[in-house]
Amino acid sequence: MINAQAANPFGEQSKLLETVAAWTLGLLWVLPLLYAIWTAFHPAEFATRFSLTAPLSLQNFVNAWHAAPFPRYFLNTFLLVTMILAAQIVLSTMAAYAFARYQFRGSNLMFMLVLMQLMVMPDILIVENYNTMNLLSLRDTILAIGLPYFASAFGIFLLRQTFKTVPRELDEAATVEGASALQTLWKVYVPLAKPIYLAFGLVSVSTHWNNFLWPLIVTNSVESRPLTVGLQVFSSTDQGVDWSIITAATLMTSAPLLLAFLLFQRQFVQSFMRAGIR
Amino acid sequence: MNRIHSPLTPWLLLLPAMVLLLGFTHYPAVATIWHSFFSTPKGANPAVFVGLENYALMIDDPVFWRVLTNNIWFALGTIPVSIALAIMMALWVNDRLAGRGLLRMAFFTPTVLPMIAVANIWLFFYTPQYGLLEQVTQALGLPSHNWLGNPNTVLGSMMVVAIWKEAGFFMIFYLAALQQISPTLAEAAGLEGASRWQYFWRVQFPLLMPTTLFVLINALINSFRLVDHIVVMTKGGPDNASSLLLYYIYEVGFSFWDSSYAAVLTVVLLLVLALVALVKFRILDRRTHYQ
């Protein structure tokens, strides 16, 4: 769908101007990132000096890697996004199925309660949620970072829309065959919603890979800190303002998502589009 | 459809999600309102009911008004610009421009980057003396300027970062919407002798209205929700010139440990979101159907 070409029946005279304008904006848009890449891959003295003869170097990355427990941060983030995604998929699937295929008293009220989360996200209620984590003795754990996001209104909404488009006949046939509700869900609905799961998965992983404020509040040790918080701790402790190293650490932190995006650009853009049309 | 299964089935399916939603969205929202009427418990002193005292404190707090004004300016400054840019970007990458794929990638990449990484890069950009911006101004012979250290330019500088981060994200929704518009409309307009400009304003722009409303709601929520760049770049400074409401809540709650005052501020934030929700349900939901 993304390659559907829009015909241009309005003549070509404005085309050149538009192309130039588009490219100017495009260059302006990647400039900060290119600058960061330049700085990270060159010795510190070239951070602000542009010279084609500047030697390429990975030293900044090596230094950054050794200056802070980045392997641990990577592991924490990996565990975090996996845990959140798994929980979100299971819980959203169950809830969406209930909303899409059952008529029960209070279902509208329940759905309204779900949709409220689209407006009031847990990141806003930081003080109360922090107290709750304290009460549950979960503060400074990876679970505490993820728990408020396990139930995703967005996921429930997206899957409910999809499940509603599944033909009733398939569902009824499964029931007649003696399948239980969960079996029907697993055998009929889930396979048909695969593209939506992929879209939701990409959006969820990138959101939680990038999330910062809540993890910053609820964690305070290396054992539970995700990459974003680790990067903040690293760049705010005085490193003698070595921008090259900080930039290398910054790129390192976003590298997996950035690489995934460069490799699967189409899928990424399409999944955001798919997830966005509601 | 009445199933043969027990009537409890839908409730059991909903149970885990509902418990977590109640626990981390609805309960904390209600608890915030409740706690805003109490004092902050300190050491051996438990919280006592103080009525509207915390609210009176807020009314007299110049920082609160500063932060609220900042946030409104931040929303007014970032949303229209990023929406306009997003529409322009979407039109371009939907057209047969040379290098369309690369352009789309260029515009969208900031969306995938963590805000905290973005903030680090831009911090470097804005650095006095040797940041990139400074290099450009020096080359042009302009005086040096501390963009983040000056109360007059700091909020504007933060807005630029937010626009850069979000325009490409909004572009995606417009791109999706543009592709729903039948190409026959463009052909018809071309045959009628309409210019590109007329076609945009008379056909495309009106058809993009539902998308604009959707994006507007998301942008509004984001402008009150996203503060990562503030933590990294300015910590609200200088002199609260770049502090936003959620950042102030964070500061009050976790630097000053004044949970009651943080609760009052959160109530204000909830009111703002309720207002957005009201607009959403009044206007937006006439067009989209949830059922």
Structure description:
- The complex is a heterodimer of chains A (278) and B (291).
- By secondary structure, chain A is mainly α.
- Chain A has one domain (69-276): MetI-like (MetI-like fold), CATH 1.10.3720.
- Chain A is built from 14 helices and no strands.
- In chain A, helix 2 crosses helix 13 (243-263) and helix 3 (70-101) crosses helix 7.
- The longest helix of chain A has 32 residues, at 70-101.
- Chain A starts with 14 loop residues before the first helix and ends with a helix.
- The relative contact order of chain A is 0.14.
- With 291 residues, chain B is mainly alpha-helical.
- The longest helix of chain B has 33 residues, at 62-94.
- Chains A and B meet through helix 1, helix 3, helix 4, helix 5 and helix 10 of A and helix 1, helix 3, helix 4, helix 5 and helix 7 of B.
- Chain A: One of its GO terms (cellular component) is plasma membrane.
Residue fraction in strands of chain B: under 5%
**Name given to the CATH homologous superfamily of chain B:** MetI-like
Fraction of helical residues of chain B:
over 70%
Helix content of chain A: 55-70%
Spell out the blueprint of helices and strands.
The complex is a heterodimer of chains A (278) and B (291).
Chain A: H1 15-40, H2 59-67, H3 70-101, H4 107-119, H5 126-135, H6 142-146, H7 153-164, H8 168-176, H9 181-192, H10 194-210, H11 213-218, H12 227-236, H13 243-263, H14 265-276
Helix pairs in contact in A: 1-13, 2-13, 3-7, 3-10, 3-12, 4-7, 8-9, 10-14, 12-13, 13-14
Chain B: H1 9-35, H2 53-59, H3 62-94, H4 100-112, H5 115-126, H6 132-139, H7 154-178, H8 183-191, H9 196-207, H10 209-225, H11 228-233, H12 245-254, H13 259-283
